[in-house]
Amino acid sequence: MLREDRQSGGESQVIPIGEQETILLIDSDQHSSDQIRTALLESSIGSFPMEWATQLSEGLIRLGKRGIAAVLFDLSLCGGSGIKTFDKLFSIAPEIPIVVLGKAADEALAIEAVKHGAQDYLLSSHHDIYSLARTLRKAIDRAAFAVAQHMEREMAVVTLNSIGDAVLCTDVAGRVTYQNPSAETMTGWTREEATSRPLTEVLRIADGSTRRTAPNPLERAIQENRTVGLTPNCILIRRDGTEFAIEDSAAPIHDRAGCVIGAVIVFHDVSVARAMSIQMTYSAHYDLVTELPNRLLLRDRTSQSIAAASRHNRPIAILFLDLDHFKHINDSLGHAIGDRLLRSVSKRLVALLRASDTVSREGGDEFVILLSDISDRADAATSAQRILIALNEPHHIEGLTLYINGTLGISIYPEDGKDAETLIQCADMAMYQAKEDGRNRFQFFKQELNLKAAERQSIESGLHLALERDEFLLNYQPKVNLNTNRITGIEALIRWQHPVFGVVYPERFISVAEECGLIVRIGHWVMREACRQARAWQNAGLLAIPIAVNVSAVEFKEKAFVKCVQSILSDTDLEPRFLELELTEGVLMKDVESAASKLRELKEMGIRIAVDDFGMGYSSLSYLRKFPIDVLKIDRSFVNQITTLQDDAILASAIIAMGRSLKHCVVAEGVETQQQKIFLQAHHCLEGQGYLFSKPLGATEFAHLLQNGL
Ligand code: C2E
Ligand code: MG
Ligand code: MG
Questions:
Q1: Which of 64, 454, 475, 515 is 20 to 30 A from 31 in CA distance terms?
Q2: What residue's CA is closest to ligand 1, atom 35?
């Protein structure tokens, strides 16, 4: 704070307060007052302005107004009340130093006053100029120091009481001297109870895993005279037995001479943080649904197994297991049941295998099993076989009986790969192949799968660009009336003009496009192009007949499928009766109700519906009746052998009869020979499609065909 002092000439000079320390003299004697005032003004130490009160009551009022640096009090004012009068004065301003004045005879009372809080006393025989000022100076400085000390202490106490960290101090002998409230809570001892007790009694520290007493860092801080941290993973055992994980450090306390006089330990509860870190380490390595090791831990263990196997020159096996149709269970019964089924499967796997094996969850419905203790491939095959059998047993979950199969791929170290990632990839590829071969089986990895995978990979990346680069085109193959040889319809078949591979046929890329979802965009392109071409031929005055487009399951499943067909028709200006959609049985059987309703919508628009590759699936007649079908296309694998194989001939004729009974137009696919045509005619199959009539042709060639007929 600053005080402004006006000087002559209007200039102002700033003097810090405190430089002028006003002394209050409480003394009834005029003479001694004059003497003291002079002494204070003329002192060599500095001049003290003085205010004078002749009575105690007057002095008390002045003191209450502040601005007084020290008090000089004449003891003779105490009168008959003795030291009590002084107490009154002291209680009004305990922080202001008081020096009492007295006669030689009052020395006993003066000493009493010092005991009650006066800074000092001066007997009348001593108040010469020098000693008076000096005594006051000392009193004022000492009081200021005491205030500063008090503040510092106060701050320390408030801090210690309010911080969350526990603080505990000991002396060199290891006896507790101080605990803050947090330390009281954590040790279970109040400060009073703890004070003077041996540290080891109050602060019981043990190793988190062994529960054995751990070295107390306070003792080490004292012995080694340095700051020490706690050994990791320590716990504190509270007085009532409760345990906390703690983290801390201890430091020695020194006296002014630098000697260790004790130590202080600061610690806090890290139970929550430690539990969290344990949980995090766990979830980084284990799958939370099945509690099996996760992919990370599996790779780690596989790498370790590989190292051991290479030292002992032994094989190991990786089994990649994928559950068949798990998604269906998850979708229809819900994730909760799905998760329980996964747990049931993982229990079975664990029960089946040895302790040295690792069963891990790779994610979704995929499990990877590491067999690190096999002698040869046959051992791996035996394990795979046992897994398939164990999985086939029903799972009882929440009153439901669930059946699930699995498909396994196996890779072997060292033949198939030298590192974990390669082995797992090989096992995955083998599993994929086993799935294609018909699921619920296992398959060893073969090198040619690698080539297949590489090709698939390059097809997939090429497909992403094919649409933009306009690399697709359509070929057209006629459908023919077997009796008249007239063209009755067209099927549009996609081709991919690949910049490197040349013409790529749909068998090689449609399934890849389905898996990566591109089929939807490709399908739209095909339909638009087919409709555009059909309309163009009609505009050119060529034969107006339906054009058939193949629709993939993925495309048909799209919510917007019907709308999409509608907008393509209107964009290309093709009448709906000239568009035919070919769907396989599988597509229709996947979700019968929704398929039936979509087909009805399409049918109402006037579009024709054909069932492609008929006979390959498992559709029953009762199902077929639900769908508004116009055409049944008998799969070419039957037609192929109708003239050579008795069974196929019977089947084909049965299918023809069935289609006719449902009033469907029956078309035979893949008619290559005259004999086949004759057989089909004899069995009243109305139409056929195949090389016998025409191979699929480009648009220009096909236009000729439309113009001139076969
Ligand atoms: P699909 O619908 O059954 O088509 C008939 C397939 O049989 C065509 O093969 C055709 O070239 C072939 N074919 C025709 N006549 C004969 C014959 O006398 N002998 C033999 N051996 N084969 C004959 P492509 O064009 O390779 O198509 C194969 C399959 O790919 C098609 O079978 C169809 O399922 C699918 N596909 C073709 N184009 C598309 C398309 O645009 N979209 C979708 N989603 N699938 C398509
Ligand atoms: Mg077709
Ligand atoms: Mg077909």
A1: 64
A2: 506
Reduced to 3 states (helix: H, G, I; strand: E, B; else coil), residue 573 is: coil
In a 13 Å sphere around the CA of 495, the CA atoms on its Cβ side amount to 16
**Helix ranges, 573-688 (H):** 585-590, 592-605, 621-626, 636-640, 646-661, 674-682
Q: Ligand 1 within 6 A of 613 CB?
A: yes
Q: Rounded to whole angstroms, how far apart are CA atoms 19 and 463?
A: 91
CATH assignment, 288-445: 3.30.70.270
pTM above 0.70, yes or no: no
Q: Which atom of ligand 1 is nearest to the CA of 505?
A: 26
Left if phi > 0, otherwise alpha if psi is -120 to 50, otherwise beta: which for 46? left
From the candidate CATH numbers 3.40.50.1820, 3.40.50.2300, 3.30.450.20, 3.30.300.30, the one assigned to the domain spanning 163-275: 3.30.450.20
What is the distance in A from the centroid of ligand 1 to the CA of 490? 12
Whether residue 676 has its Cβ less than 6 Å from ligand 1: no
CB 214 within 8 A of CB 207: yes
Task: Answer whether CATH 3.20.20.450 is correct for domain 459-708.
Answer: yes
Give the span between the Cα atoms of 449 and 323, in whole angstroms. 21
Query: Is the CB–ligand 1 distance for residue 583 below 6 Å?
Result: no
Output the CA torsion sign for 628, 633, 637, 642. positive
Strand partners, 169: 178, 264
DSSP H or E segment with residue 474: strand 472-481
pLDDT by residue (tens digit) across 442-477? 999 998 877 777 788 888 889 989 988 999 999 999
How far is the C-alpha of 608 from the C-alpha of 78, rounded, in Å? 124
Phi, psi for residue 425 in degrees, rounded to 5:
-60, -40
Radius of gyration of the chain (CA): 50
Instruction: Give the pairing type, strands 395-397 and 358-363.
Output: unpaired
10-residue mean pLDDT series, the chain (710 residues): 33 42 89 85 80 88 86 82 80 86 84 88 72 86 87 85 89 93 93 93 88 84 86 86 87 89 90 81 87 93 94 95 89 90 95 92 94 93 94 91 93 95 95 88 89 82 90 97 96 94 92 91 97 97 96 93 97 97 87 90 96 74 81 89 80 83 88 94 94 97 94
Sketch the domain layout of the chain as residue ranges: 2-157, 163-275, 288-445, 459-708
**Topology, domain 2-157:** Rossmann fold (3.40.50)
pLDDT tens for each residue of 247-297: 888 899 998 888 899 999 998 888 888 788 778 888 888 998 999 999 999
Contact in structure between 175 and 199 (CB atoms under 8 Å) = yes
Residue 583 three-state SS: strand
Percentage with pLDDT > 70 across the chain: 95
User: Which one, of 504, 515, 511, 513, lies nearest residue 463 by Cα?
Assistant: 513
